[in-house]
TrEMBL record:
It comes from the Bacteria. Keywords: Cell projection, Cilium, Flagellum. This is MinD-like ATPase involved in chromosome partitioning or flagellar assembly. The keyword Methyltransferase does not apply.
């Protein structure tokens, strides 16, 4: 059993060294370090000290567990608590974490949990410590779309290559095909998504409120108050004069609470490289947007600085495409091979496919003037968007014909009290 030990308690290590079959892969006492270790290590169990998270409600630990389980579903967490915290414990149970060790006598319990994981948590054992007297704690069950039916798509480039054009027109295509879409604008400076939709005063300053709520460490389980809803589209942008900054916590909060079949994240070039990589890590599909400018093709591979975990499920989009005979697909893809970032680091990017979006500058500008997308107005442009969209999310992979999604939502979506 391969294990990560994330705690300040030396006693825990002493206990584990006496257990047969245990290999301590890494040790750390910092959640940011733990996040990196989990990204690159193959482990079975993480023993995690609750008090590595200084937030009152354990927000950082909850986020870490959710993100880890997106890509490593079999990793098991054992959480150590010095004392019983009702809200934190309830949140862990809702995440499917039942291995919670409360109190100082941990030797016997850790040994037991390593060999026999819990399938439920006994709240009654701590009922006399509950801070909510007389209130029954119930497990919260929230219906979540199966992985096969939900896709998170990241649209990214460190250059101004028309990412928002791609994002908005993909959204338009999916919505037209009756697929619910969440579209997230991460450009907190220009807020370009704002100009593609006929928004009114009631739609503004919602992201500001979300930013403030997260800054105040509020536990957010409903994003409807922060959402702009247009038919089947749930939009997250704000007024150009609103003041906030995009954080990973904001994007992750929207993603984990979204019940849309498709989530599109327009990842702005104004974000620092670390944040851009964190957001890309959430995504199932990663779309890199370029154009045929030689300066773009030569510089893009070096400015992307994608972490190893974000070099999978990549598609390349050549936006504003024009025919250049001397620049074949092979020559374009060659730009992304043997990229030497330093003497020690060299890598290549392998794209699943390459897509070409024709240059329709006039059409895009006219659409912006009318607060609408270009899709649906030009057959060649439409066809290029449809090919890209079909590669990212298959229309047949949703419930639209059976109505099953709506039925299941009504049956299973409820929130327990805690």
């Amino acid at each position: 059993m391969r294990l990560i030990l994330a705690t300040n308690l030396g006693l825990t290590k002493n206990i584990l060294t006496e257990v047969e079959g245990i290999e301590i892969v890494e040790e750390c006492s910092d959640l940011e370090v733990l996040k990196i270790i989990l990204e690159y290590s193959d482990v079975d169990v993480v023993i995690l000290d609750r008090y590595l998270d200084e937030t009152e409600n354990g927000y950082k630990i909850k986020t870490l567990i959710k993100n880890t389980r997106r890509v490593k579903k079999d990793v098991r967490f054992i959480i150590l608590l010095g004392e019983y915290e009702e809200n934190f414990v309830s949140a862990m149970v809702n995440l499917g974490v039942f291995d919670l060790v409360v109190g100082e006598e941990i030797t016997t319990e850790i040994n037991e949990l390593l060999n026999n994981p819990r399938i439920e948590f006994d709240f009654s054992k701590y009922s006399n410590l509950s801070t909510s007297k007389g209130k029954k704690i119930k497990e919260k069950v929230v219906y979540k779309l199966p992985k096969d039916y939900q896709k998170i798509i990241g649209i990214y480039s460190p250059y101004a290559t028309g990412k928002t054009v791609i994002a908005t027109n993909l959204a338009k295509y999916y919505v037209k095909n009756r697929i619910p879409v969440t579209l997230i604008d991460t450009d907190f400076i220009k807020k370009d998504l704002l100009y593609y939709y006929p928004l009114g005063n009631k739609d503004f300053f919602k992201l500001v409120n979300l930013y403030e709520a997260i800054k105040d460490n509020k536990d957010i389980n409903d994003i409807k108050p922060y959402t702009i809803e247009i038919d089947r589209l749930k939009l997250f942008t704000d007024h150009r004069d609103s003041k906030y900054q995009i954080s990973f916590e904001m994007v992750n909060t929207i993603v984990r609470n979204s019940d849309s079949n498709v989530i599109i994240i327009d990842i702005s070039s104004c974000l620092n490289k670390e944040l851009a990589n964190e957001i890309l890590y959430l995504c199932d599909e990663r779309v890199i947007v370029a154009d045929k400018m030689i300066s773009t093709l030569n510089g893009l591979p070096y400015k992307l600085t994608l972490k190893r975990c974000n070099r999978k499920n990549l598609s390349l989009v050549i936006n504003k495409n024009i025919e250049i005979k001397s620049l074949s697909n092979k020559e374009i893809l060659k730009c992304f091979k043997n990229i030497e970032l330093s003497e020690r680091e060299k890598y290549s990017l392998d794209f699943k496919d390459i897509f070409f979006i024709p240059n329709r500058f006039k059409l895009i500008v006219e659409g912006l003037a009318n607060r609408e997308e270009a899709y649906g107005k030009d057959p060649e442009f439409d066809e290029s968007i449809e090919k890209l969209a079909a590669s990212l999310y298959q229309i047949g992979a949703n419930f639209k014909k059976t109505g099953m999604k709506e039925i299941l939502s009504k049956i299973f979506r409820w929130k327990g009290e805690y």
